[in-house]
Structure to design on (379 residues):
């Protein structure tokens, strides 16, 4: 059967094309034009961040972060295995080693109680991943980092507009990394942002982002010509992409309101599934989520596969998420052998339901009805 309700769908608000046309009229469609500057300032002002630099992807934001903290060969970075491959790739690309730590069974985030035992003399940083836009225990993580003099780089790819004790995620560690991929709450197709919360890193971040040159200082009139001063790469997105992002950010409140509505409805309508041993997202006290994801945790991989197949037959696409990085084929080539029981169990049980801005009430009703029907039938 063809898919009638996709897992995700892009949304246009109407001003995207006029903004793109305007970018061409301004004769500045490469990086750091009007729209790039607008988006960066919006995030700095809205989320009270010190400095934001748009990047071509969330992946590049993390790679920039690893360059900024001078990650070198044989250094180690502590991170969860239950994350997207970009988190670990950024470490590998510097010749360093990802050290995988298990996750908490409630939030599915890095288990802060297991971090210290993973620290060695080679540890350079901790990279917490705010899974589903839900905050890690940042107080505990920052305290550990301060004690051991480690960098903290937040992988906040899924977490725009989420908070931890009143502070926006991405703005708590030394660096924060956002993704604006098409699957995220706010999208520019492909794109991301690096949040810099340490003054000492701002100037070098601009240099690394501009191919290792001091070009940004040149355009501000601080130097009479620009030259190669450090390592770097081309991390700047086109101003055309930023023009699309501007529209999304202008509608951030609308997007958030709608996603919260969809998330709350799923939670209420599917609450009865707890009697079948099914559970969903846990949001810690003093934290706010951004309704990036609504997932169910079933009691087995077999049940999850059956549910995914059933929904697909009915024209609804629900999907599983990560294959744990520590169990991947590539990890085996690195000699990674570690037992992460919570990570493994979660990866076999989790399934994500469609949640996007333009999901209609009727379509969500059908998803809920089919889900309840499936569990009622198998019991």
């Amino acid at each position: 059967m063809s898919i009638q309700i996709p897992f995700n769908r892009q949304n246009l608000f109407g001003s995207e094309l006029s903004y793109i046309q305007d970018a061409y009229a301004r004769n500045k469609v490469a990086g750091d034009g009007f729209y790039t500057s607008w988006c960066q300032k919006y995030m700095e002002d809205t989320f009270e961040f010190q400095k934001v630099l748009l990047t071509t992807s969330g992946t590049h934001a993390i790679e920039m972060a690893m360059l900024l903290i001078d990650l070198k060969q044989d250094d180690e970075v502590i991170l969860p295995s239950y994350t997207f491959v970009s988190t670990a790739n950024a470490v590998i690309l510097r010749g360093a080693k990802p050290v995988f730590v298990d996750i908490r069974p409630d939030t599915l985030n890095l288990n802060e109680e297991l971090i210290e035992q993973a620290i060695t003399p080679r540890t350079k940083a901790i990279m917490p991943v705010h899974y589903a836009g839900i905050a890690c225990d940042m107080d505990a993580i920052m305290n550990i980092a301060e004690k051991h003099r480690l960098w903290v780089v937040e992988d906040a790819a899924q977490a725009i507009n989420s908070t931890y004790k009143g502070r926006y995620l991405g703005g708590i560690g030394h660096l924060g990394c956002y993704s604006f991929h098409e699957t995220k709450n706010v999208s520019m197709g492909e794109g991301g942002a690096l949040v810099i919360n340490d003054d000492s890193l701002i100037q070098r971040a601009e240099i690394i982002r501009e191919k290792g040159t001091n070009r940004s200082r040149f355009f501000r009139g601080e130097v009479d010509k620009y030259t190669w001063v450090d390592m770097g790469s081309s991390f700047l997105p086109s101003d055309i992409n930023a023009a699309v992002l501007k529209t999304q950010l202008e509608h951030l409140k609308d997007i958030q309101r709608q996603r919260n509505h969809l998330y709350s409805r799923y939670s209420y309508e599917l609450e009865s599934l707890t009697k079948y041993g099914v559970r969903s997202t846990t949001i810690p006290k003093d934290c706010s989520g951004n309704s990036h994801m609504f997932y169910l945790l079933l009691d087995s991989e077999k049940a999850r596969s059956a549910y995914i197949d059933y929904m697909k037959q009915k024209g609804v696409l629900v999907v599983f998420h990560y294959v744990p990085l520590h169990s991947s084929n590539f990890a085996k080539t690195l000699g990674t052998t570690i037992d992460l029981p919570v990570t493994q169990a979660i990866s076999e049980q989790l399934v994500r339901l469609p949640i996007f801005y333009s999901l209609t009430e009727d379509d969500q009703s059908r998803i809920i009805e089919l889900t309840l029907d499936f569990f009622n039938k198998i019991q």
User: Anything to note?
Assistant: The longest helix spans residues 252-269. The chain has two domains: 16-250, 252-378.
